[in-house]
Design goal:
By secondary structure, the chain is of the alpha/beta class. Helix 1 packs across helix 3, helix 7 runs parallel beside helix 10 and helix 10 packs across helix 11. The N terminus is likely disordered.
Length: about 450
């Protein structure tokens, strides 16, 4: 652990008292008790807070969910092993604090917003959480602070939710306060890239805001790439995940083509990936989940619809991704039919229901839609996932993972998510396996989508 740097994170003038009418009363403490305040301790916020603490910063984590706070304090939050080690250290260090009191934001030099930005059932951006978080940040902002938004949203969001309401309070970015946008780059479950080695992009409301925010990010990361506006930084994140969405949709389509032509798609992708330029491998699968790819491109499409601007390639890619779970249901019906059995009454075991390997995150997981679709067609469906012992199904009920898959005796096993430590030794020659993950080549009686 790097020893605490007792110097201020960024030099700035002392903060004047702006009046009790504007802010809730807070017991007087020394200025800048916290170098960094992280608003939202989810899959992005908590690893970010731990990275800053590991770099020697005094960190405040602001979280409104009592359950999340309890899981963090118990050390049971879903994290990479390296972050679990950091959490264990942080929990025993007074330089790391967790609270649900937004008034404490006044005591931080820099405030970073890391909250979810989902879409609703109509694929319309749901800004409820982000608006509430930004409102708390604005209400408790004090002169000299650096405020940074990292949550993915539409182009202009930082202007609307931070810059404009701050100006209404008399806090002008570039003069009395700094505002920036830096898209988060956390990949849950992926331990291939250390937080400190992942470059961060940042754009400021003014050039001085950009420089101060860059210094904040440089506190823990080795490389910061600066762009010259909030909008450019916001659009960067939308491009990153839209790029992934389009290429995943292409990989799924190529997988369907390869099955029709009786060509192993994983061999084709692996072979193409040997080209050292001009190709990036994307793997097919049962659909796309999580907090980024199923949601982020819709923020862009939503904004473009208002301007009557078409984006046909992105629109088609998102439609194909949304249709993929239904494709799994149809394929399950097909392979069972080939065995002389219909979906009605068939026992189907879905293996792995989180949206990606080695995380316990069920947000937007295709598995939930697949299970719902199979059950609507009369199948008896259970799931097996050691990382998700319980899950809320789309119909609202709470289901639990099976303890003994052999006792369930499935007619069909659907491999949805292949966790590294998931034991498949119970799969026997008699089990028909639909490998929607495209990763389990050695399983007997395996078919793909």
């Amino acid at each position: 652990m790097t020893s605490l740097d007792t110097r201020p994170l960024i030099a700035h003038r002392a903060r004047p008292d702006i009046g009790s009418a504007a802010l809730p009363s807070v017991p007087p403490l020394h200025a800048d008790e916290f170098d960094i305040a992280i608003v939202g301790l989810g899959y992005v916020g908590l690893p970010t807070a731990l990275a800053y603490h590991h770099a020697g910063a005094r960190v405040l984590g602001l979280e409104i969910s009592p359950q999340r706070i309890a899981s963090i304090r118990a050390g049971s939050a879903d994290l990479l092993p390296s972050d679990h080690a950091r959490l264990e250290e942080a929990l025993h260090d007074p330089r790391f604090a967790i609270s649900d009191d937004a008034a404490l934001l006044r005591r931080a030099t820099a405030v970073i917003v890391c909250v979810p930005t989902p879409v609703d059932h109509h694929l319309v951006p749901d800004l409820t959480i982000l608006r509430a978080a930004c409102a708390d940040v604005v209400a408790n902002a004090v002169p000299g602070q650096i405020l940074m938004l990292t949550s993915t949203s539409y182009v202009g969001c930082t202007q609307d939710l931070l810059v404009a309401p701050l100006a209404a309070r008399g806090l002008v970015p570039g003069e009395s306060i700094s505002v920036a946008f830096s898209p988060e780059r956390i990949d849950p479950g992926n331990d291939s890239y250390e937080h400190e080695l992942v470059p961060r992009v940042v754009g400021g409301a003014t050039p001085s805001c950009e420089l101060r925010a860059s210094a904040v990010l440089s506190r823990y990361t080795a490389r910061v790439h600066r762009v010259d506006s909030l909008a450019a930084a916001e659009m960067t994140k939308l491009l990153e995940n839209t790029f992934r969405a389009v290429n995943i949709a292409l990989a799924n389509e190529v997988a369907d083509i390869c099955r029709e032509l009786d060509v192993p798609v994983t061999q084709v992708i692996d072979a193409a990936a040997t080209k050292p330029y001009g190709f990036m491998p994307f793997l097919p699968g049962p659909g796309v989940g999580g907090h980024c790819i199923p949601c982020d491109p819709h923020y862009l499409l939503w904004q473009l619809r208002e301007r009557h601007v078409a984006a046909p390639m992105i629109t088609q890619a998102m439609s194909e991704i949304a249709a993929r779970p239904a494709r799994v249901v149809e394929r399950a019906a097909q392979v069972l039919s080939d065995e002389g059995r219909g979906l009605g009454g068939a026992r189907i075991l879905v293996v792995g229901i989180s949206y990606k390997p080695d995380v316990a995150d069920l947000r937007e997981s295709p598995a939930l839609e697949i299970i719902h679709g199979l059950e609507r067609r009369g199948a008896v469906v259970e799931f097996l996932d050691p990382l998700c012992p319980q899950a809320r199904m789309l119909d609202g009920r709470i289901a639990e993972t099976v303890r003994d898959p052999l006792a369930f005796d499935p007619h069909l096993v659907v491999l949805h998510t292949r966790h590294r430590d998931l034991d498949l030794s119970w799969v026997e020659e008699r089990h028909l396996v639909l490998d929607a993950s495209y990763r389990e080549l050695a399983v007997p009686r395996r078919v793909t989508l």
